[in-house]
Design goal:
- The protein is an alpha/beta fold.
- It has 5 helices and 5 strands, in the order αββαβαβαβα.
- Helix 2 (about 45-50) packs parallel to helix 3 (about 75-90).
Length: about 140
Amino acid sequence: MRRARISDSIADCPWPPAFFRSWTNGDPDAAWMHVAGDLNLATAPHLVRTLHEPRFQARLVVLDLRDLVAVDSFGVRAIVNATKRARRLGHRLVLLRGPPHVDRVFRLTASSEAVEIGDIDPIEPPVRALLQLADGDLGS
């Protein structure tokens, strides 16, 4: 009997998977990842794999959660572990605060203190926000 892998179940999920879109200018100093949809048991492994790609080994990685519809404990754990890994490497992983219900999951799992969360104007272009982050001017 063949066991189902998590990746086998993604295509059959009744909910939309997380959508990842990224931006980088090839510079090793900064990268941006936009996450939308659901970040959960089925989609968190994709986030982990994506964050291990060379383009996301930048000194500053911004994980934009503003369009995240839902996150479960698996998604939160993936983000917290990625934050710990970045810190071990001397890098920063900064989250752009998601909707209130996403932010609430971070508080309920006591993970808010383990990650760096910032806020920007919803229409702020990624380049300007990255410059603010690099200067440490992003409010949290």
